[in-house]
Amino acid sequence: MLVVERFRRVLFVDRYKEFTVNKVAPTLQVSTPTDTTIVLTRAFDAPRRLVWEAMTDPAKLRRWMFSPPGWEMTVCEFEARAGGAYRWVWAGADGRPVMTLRGEVRECEAPERVVHTQVMEMHECAAATEFVVTLELTETKGRTGLRLTLTFPSKSERDQALTWGMEKGMEVGYARIDAMLAQNHSDIQRA
Amino acid sequence: MVVDQSPRLDLVFHALAHPARRAIIRQLSGGERNLSELASPLRMTFPAATKHVRVLERAKLVRRRVLGRQHLCRLRAAPLREAVEWTEQFRKNWEARFEVLDSLLEAMKQEEAKSADVKPAERGRARR
User: Fold this and answer.
1) If we measure between CA atoms, which residue out of B107, B82, B45, B20 comes closest to residue A10?
2) Chain A positions in Cβ-Cβ contact with residue B98 (cut-off 8 Å)
3) In the beta sheet, which residues pair with residue A77?
4) Nearest to A64 among B77, B92, B97 (CB)
5) Is residue A10 very low, low, confident or very high in pLDDT (cuts 50, 70, 90)?
6) CA A171, CA A176: separation in Å to the nearest integer?
7) ipTM of the predicted structure?
8) Chain B residue with minimal CA distance to A181?
9) Which string of b and e fits A76-110 if b means at least 16 CB within 10 Å?
């Protein structure tokens, strides 16, 4: 029952309250503990102040923030303080904005916790989803555990966010996703 | 290919959104169980447990067969597989991002180590 085993790892992390690095797997775990949330956990082999810097300093954010081929990050702002704002904009090959992520920082306690809203705008369609992102960092012996909780207003918006990567993969010809899909598909057929 | 508007997937995710139903699936991953075996660890009435089993049946996650007076339930893997594939894609997108972050953190650690090496030397020169 390999499939069930994998499934348990992916979705059954519902008792996640005790949050220490030792309990965080080194690879990313995604779970959906409630109908309206997605929880991501992962460990990083670096002290917390560096992970914090990488996640809140715009110059550092730019260096790891996702950019599909053909997209360029044109705006990267982040004010790491309660009441601060942030805005990340990606433009396509023609220089026109394709996607904007923006929001307001609600809570900010360096170097362990940020709560911010996030509005995702795709410039070709009017629909925008707003959700709340809670980032928590914990450190043990120079390693950092990360927990990212995405809270959506409804289940359907949560589900949409889970599929977003795939939809975009098809729209912008994100070849890597196709390759991963093929890989994933063969994994599942083997399982 | 997984279609995101699949009503069947909606049923699967709805079925999995309750801790009692996840507990039932956990039990069934060990093999076939009858209804009272499934209900007993759940700390709920038998009819309430039966209702949860019915939700799982509707999502085609559980198949029930009647053997005399026993109702035997068994797990069906196919819808789970579909749900795994679905969240797995989301997971891979984020993991790809975090792997880039891993290398950035590595670079930051090295920069820090380098400047820590430089500072004592500077202090040494200042003293001289």
Assistant:
1) B82
2) 28, 42, 44
3) A87
4) B97
5) very low
6) 13
7) 0.74
8) B89
9) bebbbeeebebebbbbbeeeeebbbbbbebeebee
Q: Give the amino acid at B36.
A: S
DSSP string across A39-55: EEEEEESS-HHHHHHHH
Tokens linked to B85: 């594939």
The angle, 0 to 180 degrees and rounded to 10, between the axes of the packed helices B7-16 and B77-127 is 70
Cis peptide before A58 (omega within 30 of 0): no
Query: Which of A6, A55, A148, A166 would you mutate first to test chain B, the one with the most B CBs within 10 A?
Result: A166
Q: Which two tokens stand for residue A190?
A: 């083997």
For an interface test with B, which of A1, A16, A67, A157 has the most B Cβ atoms less than 10 Å from its Cβ?
A: A1
Output the pTM of the full model. 0.64
Closest CA to A121 of A80, A155, A75, A156: A75
C-alpha atoms less than 13 angstroms from C-alpha of A25 in its C-beta half-sphere: 12
- The confidence band for A60, taking pLDDT boundaries of 50, 70 and 90, is very high
Of A176 and A78, the one with more pLDDT: A78
Q: Return the number of other C-beta atoms located less than 10 Å from residue B120's C-beta.
A: 9
Do residues A32 and A152 touch, judged by C-beta distance below 8 A? no
pLDDT-wise least confident of A58-72, A86-100, B76-90: B76-90
| A79, A57 Cβ separation under 8 angstroms | no
CA separation for the pair A154, A151 (Å, rounded): 9
Which residues pair with residue A144 across a beta bridge? A44, A139
Using an 8 Å Cβ cutoff, are B49 and B42 in contact? yes
Distance CA A67, CA B50 (A): 48
How far does the CA of residue A163 sit from the closest CA of chain B (Å)? Answer: 6
